[in-house]
Amino acid sequence: MAAPATGHVIAGTLVEGEGRRIDVLNPATEEVIASVPAGTPADVDAAVAAARSAFEQWAATPLERRIEVARRISEGIAQRRDEIAATVTAEMGSPIKFATQVHASVPAATSAGIVEVLESGFPWSEEVGNSLVVREPVGVVAAITPWNYPLHQVVAKVVPALAAGCTVVLKPSEIAPLTAQLFASVLAEAGVPDGVFNLVHGTGPEVGEALAAHPDVDMVSFTGSTRAGRRVSEVASQTIKRVALELGGKSANIILDDADLVKAVKLGVAGCFSNGGQSCNALSRMLVPESHYEQALELAAAAVAKYNVGDPTDETTRIGPMVSAAQRDRVVGYIHKGIEEGAKLVVGGPERPEGIERGYFVQPTLFADVEPEMTIAQEEIFGPVLSVLPYSDEDEAVRIANATNYGLAGAVFGSDERALAVAKRMRTGQVDVNGGRFNPKAPFGGYKQSGNGREFGRYGLEEFLEIKSIQR
């Protein structure tokens, strides 16, 4: 895989930057595969100035033109699927099969979803009594995105923002920035005018904070950890700009006593371990009736054993490396913490997977006898670690599910009517019932410390719009 030309993209020009560069490592081999410039506040100033200069004309661009650009972006992602997948695998270690089916394919669907929303008659204006209520683009948007879904999260922000008539400055994660660089070329080929989209590489403390604080940025859309989200909110509050946050999660999978246990456990393990567990909506807590607990543990152990760890470029690999040494150490630290607090290690553990000598790999790990207040049941681990907890009745299951600081996602398995009723009681932004499939037009976002705001479809588009009331 040839690495894309790397640099900032400011006003349509590739800017290599001056001074320090940031190495991009392949987490499976620990080898340097590329580098990007370490952006500075001056780079941020230049990118924001370009976005501000381009805003008025782009906001006035006919809707049909913006729709066509969004459609071309979706098509461009689809056409470059294999290149995108290979880049994701190289820079963040996602197994190539998952990278192809999810990382490189879902963004094309979410982009197409925005096109469908706009073509179906989105209400840009409406009459309310003697008032005309109109929706207008919020302005210059700073999009700050994470490494775990390096294209998916970028597209979830940039495409609806552009479709709404906003201009954008993107700061991708410095750990996995190469996919964003590819995306910049897709936008150029789709006809996005110079300055409407800008890309600045760099770290959160340097570039991210400069964007959040910038007086000419009207909105910050951030995806990342809850800790970093607090900082973004704090910095952005000084200029009273809009902030949308998609943060951490500790999602529960409630298996009811009338569920298909085999299906529920199998899909629950998949919901925890996909992308190596490095998903904010990972189903990291499996809640099982006491009467089915031992059987569920046996099923879970058998399922976890099938998640082989290895070379992410191999089509048969299901768990690749963690994205970095720091992330591997974080996950291993939580495994040690679980053991120290008395949870029972059923499968896996903190040791390096057998036969693997380099790379940031972690064994898929299953814990039993987990108490709801244990650290591994309360804090986001962001790795292939599943906790199984017993419950006595439905009310207790809901209480355990809701008893964390997070509320991003969840799942329920059981008879349809009961499962739907339980889903409505969960304090979380998205719930899958009996393996309900991903919907690129449905809202995604969190309650509590999982953030605010929503992404995808009409709900994601509305995040980038201001509402004006004109009385007549």
Automatic annotation (TrEMBL):
The keyword Disulfide bond does not apply. This is aldehyde dehydrogenase (NAD(+)). Belongs to the aldehyde dehydrogenase family. The active site is at 246. It catalyses: an aldehyde + NAD(+) + H2O = a carboxylate + NADH + 2 H(+). GO terms for molecular function: aldehyde dehydrogenase (NAD+) activity. It comes from Saccharopolyspora rectivirgula. Gene3D superfamilies: Aldehyde Dehydrogenase, Chain A, domain 1 (3.40.605.10), Aldehyde Dehydrogenase, Chain A, domain 2 (3.40.309.10). Residues 15-470 form the Aldehyde dehydrogenase domain. It is an enzyme of class 1 (oxidoreductase). Keywords: Oxidoreductase. Pfam families: Aldedh. It comes from the Bacteria. Its EC number is 1.2.1.3.
